[in-house]
Amino acid sequence: MSIEISAKSITPVRLAYGNLERRFGDKKPASRYQEAVYDIQPTTNFQYRPLWDKNHDIYDVSKTAIVMEDWYSFADPRQYYYGSYTIARAKQQEVAEHNFAFVDKRDLFDAVPEAVKQAVRNILIPLRHVEWAANMNNCQITDECYGSNFSSVGMFNAMDRLGMAQYVTRIGLLLDGNEEATLDAAKQAWMEAPQWQGLRHAIEDMFVLDDWFELMVAQNFVLDGLIFPLLYDRFEKKLTQEGGSTIAMLTEFMDDWYKETVRWTNALAKVTAKESAENQALLSGWVAKWTDRLSVALEPIAIEAFGDDGANELVEVKAELLDRLAKQGVTV
Amino acid sequence: MPAKKLNLRKRYELLTRGMGWETTYQKMDDVFPYDSFEGIKITDWDKWEDPFRLTMDSYWKFQAEKEKKLYAVIDSFAQNNGQTNLACASYLSAIKLFITGVTPLEYGAHRGFAHLGRHFRGDGARIACQMQAIDELRHAQTQVHTISHYNKHFSGLHDPFHQFDRVWYLSVPKSFVEDAMSSGPFEFITSISFAFEYVLTNLLFVPFMSGAAYNGDMATVTFGFSAQSDESRHMTLGLEIIKFMLEQHEDNLPIIQRWMDKHFWRAYRLLALVAAMQDYMLTNSPMSWKEAWDVYFVENGGALFEDLSRYGLKMPKYHELATAESDHISHQVWSVFCSLGNATGFHTFLPTEEKMDWLSEKYPDTFDKYYRPRFEYWAEQKKAGTFEYQKGLPQLCQVCQIPMVFTEVQTDPMQISYRVTEHGGDKYHFCSDGCKDIFEFEPEKYVQAWLPVHQIYQGNCGGPTLPEVLDWYKFKPEDSGDYIGSKDYQRWQEWKGADKKVKQA
Questions:
Q1: How far is CA A185 from the centre of its chain?
Q2: pLDDT class of B503 with cuts at 50, 70, 90
Q3: What domains, with CATH codes, occur in chain B?
Q4: How is domain A82-327 classified at the architecture level of CATH?
Q5: Does the global pTM surpass 0.90?
Q6: Interface list for B 65-94 with A (CB within 8 A)
Q7: B161 touches chain A (CB under 8 A)
Q8: pLDDT tens digits, one per residue of A96-147
Q9: Contact B56 A159 (CB under 8 A)
Q10: What distances in angstroms separate CA B433 from CA B320, B326, B421, B450, B451, one per listed residue?
Q11: Statement: residue B13 has pLDDT above 90
């Protein structure tokens, strides 16, 4: 049986903002996602050119070689706007907080073999610098991109990366009873140890890329597409087998985050490649360039992580990445 | 071994500092190319004190709680037709001005702070800017959501972002934010975080949000409360950045003083639209513009600058004029809107007797003497059916882009304040010495201005006739003109019952 509360009903004069009616028709109300990300960015009649870049308008489609008839062709399959984004992350951080507290309270690290702890120090903790760089790069994308759908997704991604850099930092602190030795050693390795220099060099080169879409490809398609499967997935499974399941509890956030992120990077690859043969060629070229460069850079880290299997693990991860991108229409 | 306890400060430091590094494969100056050309000298970025120590996990947690509450209220407002509880539908002119003129500024701030969040060399400053960048995105998005329900029931709210790029009076906020965004990062943060967010934000926020509370607008006032804690973080950042720059090097002072003078005046001119909103659009006004100016600028601002005087920073140039103008600008700007009411995206209306009495009380030195006669004259014309909107387009100030309506309040309040300068063989016109000074310091910037009136005359705005221009703006016929008799008015009468006289009628 249902009960019905009578409420006064007033017929609306329209169901959505004009920009959304023009995009999606005027027959049904727009979603919160649509209202929040479509067409907010100014597109024309700019008042002044930036003092530091007289060749571009404040928002300018020519800041990338990618050409889109409509920059709002891309939609985030997660439908994230600020509210849905923060609510989703708040849930995840609650789980993470619980896991960190649990590991701390039960002294779970005491049961982790020293060799596993050392592997975490050597391989996972330096990734706080990689996440920090990913934060900068996504902030750069938010700054330079065209369209409020892109700036929204870029901003959320940037803040996610800061959050993950902070989680990695907390693992480092937990390992050492809140001493900074692990963090200091990881930074030193990042700055000086030969196995990290290829990656650091590539990342510093990414910092100065001119084209924000190339940066999107290098960072969010390729580097993440290699590092997360290789280190947060495969390497963690190896650590678990060696008695380090505690670590997996502490990186659950990263694991979930990557599975979620692949959804929008796939969607973005697909819609951009489908637009034109020229876009397809640009994306393929960038994917090839950065996959080559970054897989070479990651090889010494893979070898340190997996020993003799390292090179092979990396080859497999790279093949999976290229295969996944090929399914979106980006073939190398 | 039990873990040692980390104090919050140390913990925060480890979670925000030391993750960045001095690059060696690329030069730091290439990685951070924009933080030196303005001449601001930073000797030690580590001296930056984070004004709020928020790590991302707690940011997500706090903000998600706020979002849940906000959306619960918005949903309930829509479900229960909260729009029928407004003091009067004419109040919505304020909301129309807000979503077309203010919400896009939030978005601009989002992008501007993302620029700083990437390009400041100091890690701590970058994070603070990123937090503000995402907050500003929040404000843009939640405002669109909050006002969405009104759009379903009223005119003039359907195309805010299309209009922001085109409409004659919206070039005032557009040129303001694009001025800051096209400046270097230190000038941007001085403009937005200090001049606007710290010195003047109460004059934007309080009129709109208290106005909402006084007029039954539960949706907007809930947004206001929800954004309040973000705003206090932003204000703290504004003060921190100014002190940081001033403490870093003595050479920074004259640069900052000039930016302060410029962006105070820029922001103050923008607030003239808010003044008109506050004194005229609100059915019930919580306080007059002049009262707000006295409290938030003269008293609070005065105390702030007294505090900053130990760094050598002085009150912004022309602040005395701004205070003298506080008796006039709301009346002058509302007069412009009323005389061009056939070309505004919100309804205009002459003040009721009751409203005029309130204005006389709040403006004893000026309203009855200068402005009441004008409104009474127009009211008579309307009654007789002889009222006509102004023909032809007003001349705009080259910098603030407001029509030339401000007067010489310190000498002759009936005399239009009019300044002119020559550059590159052309004449440029200004509403004030403040705007003229801004132009003369950076003429090559301000000659680029996209002045709506010039653009209309040059044929870049849909066509030579008013209907063509309005069509290009995507103004629908029912969006403009008098509130009385409008579709909004008719709808309001239906809801409230014809027998219950609405306040504006």
A1: 26
A2: very low
A3: 15-496 (1.10.620.20)
A4: Orthogonal Bundle (1.10)
A5: yes
A6: 65, 67-68, 70-71, 79-81, 84
A7: yes
A8: 999 999 999 999 999 999 999 999 999 999 999 999 999 999 999 999 999 9
A9: yes
A10: 13, 17, 11, 21, 19
A11: no
